[in-house]
Design a protein that fits this description.
The protein is mostly helical and 275 residues long. It has a single domain, classed as Glycerol uptake facilitator protein.
């Protein structure tokens, strides 16, 4: 394992840990601040998670891309933006991070560090909502990358997730690593273990559907485009393939422009000397 990959894996673990703490901590705080008012609790969670996700992507995106989500990593690999080896290395780091973050959130609120959730969520409506939520999330991410607007991804992803907390019946998870992490907190945000496998299948189905839709919308999407997910980063395939190719092209154009301008510059210097 290279030093660059180790650094990216640590970034994914750290970002996922903050994500797990963010979601679980927001749920615990909302339940304490607004007891018996589920709508207000959900609004508080949506605002906190949307803003927090924005900052997490900004924090680790320049290192690893800021995926913090196995489905994002797998879809990115399918478009060539990330090697399959790296994608499968990202997943354990993301799962471990979300579990660790959930445990830390429990401890921050003086709860049992590990408390297995009892809230069952895997109804047919919830699973359909997860397919839709995951599809929409990936369309936002890959549309921005393909149209060279990756710099907007942190804000766009945060806003989408905040909105999806309300427009989906599942209150949006769209992340298998986070679904696993939420098992370990019997709180407002918790997932009963029996609900998680079905959620993961629904999220993966949303990922497969997103691949097909992205290819329809953007049939010329390239590995260089995918390498910008979620943010352009300087390690691994994103640099060695897409960005390096872009740099080489830009350098070649600059050299051609300099050569084209050289004769004119020499003539102007000669006229100044003669004059």
């Amino acid at each position: 394992m290279t030093a660059n990959l180790q650094r990216r894996l640590f970034a994914e673990f750290l970002g996922s840990a903050f994500l797990g703490a963010l979601v679980v901590g927001a749920g615990i705080a909302a339940a304490a601040l607004s007891p018996a008012d589920t709508g207000l609790e959900l609004f508080e969670c949506a605002a906190v998670v949307g803003a927090g996700l924005f900052t997490i992507i900004l924090m680790i995106g320049p290192v690893s891309g800021g995926h913090v989500n196995p489905v994002v990593s797998l879809v990115d690999a399918s478009f060539g933006g990330l090697s399959w080896r790296d994608a499968f290395a990202y997943i354990p780091a993301q799962v471990a991070g979300c579990v660790s973050g959930a445990i830390v959130a429990n401890a921050m609120f003086a709860k049992s560090a590990v408390s297995i959730a009892t809230t069952h969520r895997a109804s047919g409506a919830h699973l359909l909502a997860e397919v839709v939520a995951t599809l929409g999330l990936l369309l936002v991410i890959f549309s921005l990358a393909r149209t060279r607007r990756a710099g907007s991804a942190p804000a766009a992803v945060g806003a989408y997730i905040a909105a999806a907390c309300f427009f989906t019946s599942s209150s949006v998870c769209a992340n298998p690593a986070l679904a696993v992490g939420r098992i370990f907190s019997n709180s407002f945000a918790g997932f009963a273990p029996a609900s998680v496998p079905a959620f993961v299948v629904a999220q993966l189905a949303g990922g497969l559907l997103a691949i097909a839709v992205v290819r329809i919308l953007y049939p010329d999407v390239t590995a260089a485009d995918a390498a910008r997910v979620l943010l352009p980063h300087t390690d691994g395939r994103a640099r060695s393939d897409g960005a390096a190719e872009d740099d080489a092209t830009a350098d070649g154009r600059a050299r051609q422009g300099a050569r084209a301008q050289a004769p004119g510059a020499r003539r102007r210097r000669a006229r100044r000397v003669l004059g």
